[in-house]
Amino acid sequence: MKKVIEGSQAVSEAARLARVQVIAAYPITPQTHIVEALSGYCSNGTLDARFINVESEHSAMAAVIGAASGGARAFTASSSHGLAYMHELLHWASAARLPIVMAEVNRALGPGWNIWTDQTDSLAQRDTGWIQLYCEDGQEVLDTTLQAFRLAEELNLPVMVILDAFYLSHTFEPIDIPDQQLVDRFLPRLSPRIKMDTANPGALNQLVTPAAYMEMRYNTQLAMQSAQDCLEKIEKEFAAVFNRTHGPVEAIRCRDADIIMVTTGTVTGTCRQVLADLRSRGEKVGLFKLKLFRPFPSNLICRHLGAAKKIAVIDRNISFGAGGIFAQEIRAALCNLDRPPRIFSYVAGLGGRDITPNTLVEIYNETKTKPTPKQESVWIGLNQEIVGTWRN
Amino acid sequence: MNDSSINQIPLFIPHSSTSTMVNKTGSWRFFHPKFVEKTAPCSAACPLGQDIARIEMLTSWGLLKDAWQTILKENPFPAICGRVCFHPCENACNRADMDEPIAIHRLERFLGDTAVSDGSKADFNIKPAKGKKVAIAGAGPAGLAAAYFLTRLGYGCEVFEARSEPGGLLRWGIPAYRLPRDILDKEISRIKDLGVTIHCETPVTENLLEKIRSEYKALFVACGYERSITLKIQGGDLARDGLEFLRNPHPAENPSLGRTAAIVGGGNTAIDVARSLVRRGVSVLIVYRRRLEDMPAFEPEAAMAVKEGVKIMELVTPIRIQKNSSNRSSSLPDFRLTLQQMKVGKKKIAGRACVVPDGEKTETIDVQNIFVAIGAKAEPIWQSLNANEPNSLDLRHCRLIEQKIPVVLGGDLTTPDKSVTDAVASGKQAAMALDTYFEKGLDAVEKRLAACRVGAGPALSVDTYLDQDRKYRNAHIVGYDEIVSDYFQSAPRVIPADLNAHLSIRSFEEISATYASDAAKKEAARCFNCGICNACDFCRLYCPEMAVIVDKTKRRINMDYCKGCGVCATECPRNAMALEEEIK
Fold first, then answer.
1. Per the CB < 8 Å rule, is A237 touching B1?
2. Closest CA in chain B for residue A219
3. How far apart are CA B208 and CA A111, in angstroms?
4. Does one domain contain both A236 and A254?
5. Does residue A92 belong to any structural domain of this protein?
6. Cβ atoms within 10 A of the Cβ of A193, count?
7. Which of A241, A248, B116, B352 is most solvent-facing, going by the fewest CB within 10 Å?
8. Measured between CB atoms, does A186 come within 8 Å of chain B?
9. B11 touching A, CB under 8 A?
């Protein structure tokens, strides 16, 4: 049934439909609506789950690690500083191979204190061993969250479902909320591969010496490498039940494009319109939506972007001293092609600044007119009245 | 639907099917925690050394009879002391550092009253009869307490009392508005129920003393100060004896008291006389030779007197009493009291400033009655007993003299503070001293009693003397800085409301009220339970090795796994644990 709900609620509805058994979370804007709804479901009996109140995000992650170690389907949600505070245990969750699902709402880190969207928080966790999926709209959020449980449980890896603050978390859209029966068919009860049992005591995750540590890490890497295929398989099963698919990436009119714009999150939605406008003017432009970031789908990137002349990557994030993070990774994925495309890196929309159709057109024009990209990322839309005074 | 087309990669994670029990973390230890119960400051301040921390713990749990019995171990009179004790315990209470002290005094009364109204019977282990009879002179608080403790120690006791009923000062000195007579009777009846014989209207004469010396194995003298000190001034014989008036302040015995009275003195007797007179409609003026702050009366009692309308004049001493001419047409009251004004001198005696006459300044007042309450002393027969004997032992609350039979002087004769609780403490000390004397001789007494001290003393514990639980209590007195105050929230002290002063002066009805049960439990729950384990269980909950084991209700530490981190001892909110270095 379709309902007009906000992106946060799409996550909550998915977690409810997934029949999660343990939820532990600590409130933080703009994530709070997600667990607020779930705590309501727990207290009014809609959801038969244990909601654990904790004093911090570090403890929230510790609690879901405990729950998942006990074989429960566990869920949490966080954002920005909360996610940063979980950092140590994000490593733990993946190395312990626990199928935890987390919703992560992209929000800028302070200072300056800022609650608006920015991807640097989740990208700073890219090496923690979590699968990362960046969503474009409310329906994708709901669907991806359901798929995330399947993905996590098949691979025994934790999954982060990522959505932009406010543009997605607080925006109301008509969203199809599937029937519980259908969800149960797609996502049956968890049969855990890891399950602590008091009747059969044991210990998990003790000391591992150099003699076995590398193999343990290689084992995780193998699981990560199979995630893309696994997601595609799960999406097929999902489509069979719900007649919807999103894909790990989406390539729109890329085949004949000279310039392909690469986007993530809600910017993709804006860019779809820009793409239509530019195409109507005869521009040979394509749009590539990157959803699966970990594992990084290098093969899909080579396949869809390899033939273009120029790639314009829009990064709503910054790795200081290096530049936009998606651009770096895309450049790295393409560099071994015989005639790799030129990679233009653009940093835009940090801390919730709007990325409008005009911003995207400006990026397209810049890419089109410049024969070669700059070594460093180009910052779009800087206020020259401020930054102009800093240069000699 | 869910059958996987992708082959599952085998999980490669550390897993051991042997439990962590194989890892005996106890081998890491170089400190070890111990459950060491310590002394609460209230207990050490109580002249009777009552186990207040445990009493409040049991009260907060609703185990009211157990709490009452815990009082009875050290004090036979909860309902009496819960009314008349000056409660130094509350001044020592650690809770005062956080908000306000626990209402220990009122809670004691609540437990005493509850036991009285429930008709509770105490179940004691009374030691097997030793076949020794002890005579006790005086059925006041000291004598009755000695009888109570001696009986529990296995002695037969007979009490000889000059007056018509037992109670001593409790009955003949403390007015009913502070200690209702039915409460007094019920508390005393518990002593009788133990098998103590009280012979009333049997003053100890020389003849009886001879009989006691030949037929009894010991004598405890707790005759009190019965003989008032008189005013040695011109016309001093015209003043009435305050103590005598207190023996029956009611109209039947003291028909006309007129409208005005002056009371000479500044002790508790003076205050009691004043407040009793107020209840008879008399305007009262207390004249006291020193300053207000020097008055030996307990401060709350004096404050109540002032609230009830008693006036106090400081720094005046009587020098003359004259009878006014009984001219019927004159409306002058019967007596004229001449007062010398005093001033503070330079010298100090026992911490109190000396006062000296302030030149020739005098003033006079006319009143219908003058009462004297400037102290009392023992009857001559007892003074003779207290001769300097070579074989005697001065204990803090009593004096043991080896004569034909051992004689112990106690109560007001020996106690440093003249209070009911100190009198009871005297009886208790006498009982312990006599028992040790019979078992091990005079030389053993001091050492044996010192081993029963609560904290640094002087209070003694019979429980310790009887080798019960308190024997293992460490003498260290827990200070507020040793309480983990994070575990406690500020909460106001709640006590039942007193009778309003303008109502209280209309009768001899009791002024203060007793707790309702829920309010008492709530107040008792404010107690930190300093130094004792109240089963809060934080030690067990916080132990990272799960090495704190609860056996029945006692906690112990599994040393195989205790790694000596000290979390338990540090987190114990009430310092009932200790951490000691381990020498390996």
1. yes
2. B12
3. 94
4. no
5. yes
6. 16
7. B352
8. yes
9. yes
What pLDDT shows up at residue B396?
84
Same domain, A322 and A236: no
Q: In chain B, what is the greatest distance between 2 CA atoms, to the nearest angstrom?
A: 127
Number of domains within chain B: 4
* Both structure tokens of B177: 């508005």
Q: Establish if B3 touches chain A: CB-CB under 8 angstroms.
A: no
- Cβ-based contacts of B15 with chain A (< 8 Å): 202-205
- CB of B5 within 8 Å of a chain A CB? The answer is yes
CATH number of domain containing B104: 1.10.1060.10
Q: What is the distance between the terminal CA atoms of chain B, rounded to a whole angstrom?
A: 64
**Residue (of B30, B21, B31) closest to B546 by Cα position:** B21
Contacts of B10 in chain A (CB under 8 A): 219
Of B402, B417, B450, the last residue of a domain is: B450
The boundaries of the domain holding residue B33 are 20-37+533-581
Cβ pair A229:B6 closer than 8 A? yes
For residue range A40-60, list pLDDT tens digits in order: 999 999 999 999 999 999 999
Give the pLDDT of residue B392: 82
Is residue A288 scored above 50 in pLDDT? yes
Q: Which residues of B touch A226 (CB under 8 A)?
A: 6, 9
What is the DSSP track for A360-384?
Answer: HHHHHHHHHH-SS--SSPEETT--H
Whole-number Å distance between alpha carbons of A146 and A241: 12
- Please tell me if residue A216 touches chain B, with a CB cutoff of 8 Å: yes
Q: CA of B2, closest CA in chain A: separation in Å? A: 7
Residue for token pair 């315990």: B89
Q: What are phi and psi of B354, to 5 degrees?
A: -75, 150
Give the lowest-confidence range in A122-131, A205-214, B84-93, B318-327: B318-327
**Chain A interface test: which of B11, B21, B25 (most A C-beta within 10 Å):** B11
Note the pLDDT tens digit of each residue in B513-571.
889 999 999 999 999 999 999 999 999 999 999 999 999 888 999 999 999 999 999 99
Name the residue facing A203 among B9, B12, B19 (closest C-beta). B19
Count CB pairs under 8 A between chains A and B: 62
* pLDDT of B389 strictly over 70: no
Longest Cα pair distance anywhere in chain A, in angstroms? 72
Q: Does residue A196 lie in a domain region?
A: no
DSSP B492: -
B245 and B339 part of one domain: yes
Site of tokens 């004790």? B85
Q: Is B552 on the interface with A (CB under 8 A)?
A: no
A320 to A107, A323, A377: CA distances (angstroms): 17, 6, 11
Distance from CA of B46 to the nearest CA of A (A): 43
For residue A324, being part of any structural domain is answered with: yes
Q: Are residues A236 and A359 in the same domain?
A: no
Q: Are B166 and B200 in contact (CB under 8 A)?
A: yes
Q: Which of B375, B407, B430 is the last residue of a domain?
A: B375
Distance CA B566, CA B30 (A): 10
Interface residue of A94, A154, A217, A241 to substitute, partner B, most B CBs within 10 Å: A154
Q: Residues B149, B206: one domain?
A: yes
CB contact under 8 A, A97 and B2: no
CA distance A220 to chain B (A): 8
Which residues lie below 8 Å from residue A332, measured CB to CB, with a gap of 6+? none
Cα–Cα distance measured from residue B47 to residue B45, given in angstroms and rounded to the nearest whole number: 6
Report whether B528 contacts B482 (CB < 8 A): no
